[in-house]
Amino acid sequence: MSPTEANRSDFETVSDSQISRSERYRQLVDELLLAPARIVWNDWRARIAITIISVFVFMGTVGIRLVKEPRTNQGDRLVGAFQTLEHPLGTTPLGVDIMSQIIYATVPMLKMITAGAVFSVVVATTVGTISGYKGGTIDRALMALTDVMLTIPGLPLVIVLAGVMDISGNPYLIGVLLSINAWAGLARALRSQVLTLRDADYVEAARLMGIPTSKILTVDIIPNLMPYITMNFVKQARAVIFGSVGLYYLGILPYSTVNWGVMMNNAVKQAGATSSPAAFHWLAMPMLAIILLSMGLTLFAQSADRLFNPRVRARHAKSISGDNDTTSEVKS
Amino acid sequence: MNYVIKRTGQAIFTIFATISVSFGLIRLLPGGPTDYLRAQMLQRGEDMTAQQINRRIEAQTNIAVDEPLHIQYIDYMTSILTGDFGTSHWQNEPVTEVLGSAVPWTIFIMSVSLFLAFAIGISLGAFMAYREGSRFDVASTGVALVLNSTPGYVVGLLALVFLGYRTGIFPTGGHHASGLEPGLNAKFLLSAAYHGALPILSMTVVAFGGWALDMRGNSIRVLGADYLHVARLRGLPERRIALRYVARNAILPMYTGLMIAIGTMFGGAIIIEEIFAYPGVGFYLISSIHQRDYPVMMGAFILITVAVVIGIYIADMTYGKLDPRAKRGESRESY
């Protein structure tokens, strides 16, 4: 409910004219941006998550302008990690700086993540809510499709597609390809959530009032699903990282730019990093990057859960007004 | 009963759809396998008539390219359904033979790690929820988060480096020690377990954290539910509350996750098999792609999918027994 609507209640009649436009905007900003930001920032996990994600975004945008593009003979051969200031993460046997490789690989990674996560979440939300709410034939048809997509194992399908199709190295395309059937799981989960919601009193009331289905879905149903959707956006982002790096490692996806998976592949295949300790840092650094970025995303999903949890929101509202309420609903 | 028939039909339909997709990929994709094979044969400059080339393509892909499309489709379907996956042109053996020996190994490492991860995950998660906020809970959450953010192949590579090459505690490849005859004797089984240990470990380590976090979240949600207050007020014994009220309701939402995990773990198993040179279905899938051995590639894809379909089918059939509410949705009227 927007603040103006709230104020229109019969009992506390406050006419609209009393709130100036700037005040109304300020209220909106406060409700939509500042309050969530405060809740999120209050959580240590969110602070770490936002820091990590910002660092990677910074690397992908400003970092590539600060650091020279990776090429051979940038430095001595096979310098270990944390040995020199010039090459903080070391170099490869061809003298390529590993840090610049890591940084330059961030750009296509961020593009893949975004494309894949947006694609899967949008498709899943559309399919899941319509199917769960409408029921009947539409539901059966959509769920038949979803079940097929859900059961066909994702990575093998992508591997086969990549092996058969002539895909170019476009990161957006690869992101979508990696999420080709990832929406199915979320669509099913959303559908089962909608099933419990469609019979809720307020939804029934809205239906009886003749409010159009599209409006019921967007106003009454989807906001309740936001925790699921956010969590899955992040989950899919992580799946795209895992999948793309894995497939690049296997040498299945075509590549034109440097990639963490390609780095790992080269480290193992060219320098024998699994058996030779001297090249281990070449393998370890991209691993570290993968774990860090996906940990940032995981932590973010966890703290986002708080944002949508009405209990946490309510508790937070109390703590703003000075009431130091530390009870947890669990122990009661 | 109606549900069983419906669900069985669905499983069969999915298998059908998968084989159709595979047919489409081989036949309909411009620049796809049939085009590639043809181009390759023409390039080699062998003196072959168009008919001979078509024969060769048919032998390799199971598709008679000179027939009309619908006949090709029916032929392909029947040959796959009768177990004829074509011949591997790399190993010059029937695909069924190449993959047949690999299937049990993949299912072995997959199912063991899935079971271990789920069992460790739910018990740890329940315990974490019970001790919510304690130092144990915070530490476990941290560990679970880190593990959950790590792909299986990273753990696999690290295990290979440290437990395989550097220390030599575990073997770095193969199903079992060479020279051992497969059979139901202790020596062989131990060797198989020893060789499977690192792949299983890699997949379990990264998966149980996620289950634990899910279970923890669900348990905490259930712990706050009204029916638990009612159960306590009724004076039910704690054990009954913990098992019948908390555990059961906390595990249920994870059941769909378990079904999806069967599918995703196959993807993980492919990379893990490659890392540990563990000749399972995934291992052959990867090498067939590098070799452009399309019959093996499609055979592996179909086999993996069928295995997943069956796994999920079994999981689905038992779902109704766990959650009576799952059945109610079937007879819903539409709005």
TrEMBL record, chain B:
One biological process term in Gene Ontology: transmembrane transport
Residue intervals passing through the bilayer: 12-29, 105-130, 142-165, 192-213, 250-276, 296-315
Keyword Transport assigned: yes
Coiled-coil annotated spans: none
Compartmental location: Cell membrane; Membrane
Primary residence: membrane
Entry's family note: Belongs to the binding-protein-dependent transport system permease family.
Name recorded for this polypeptide: ABC transporter permease
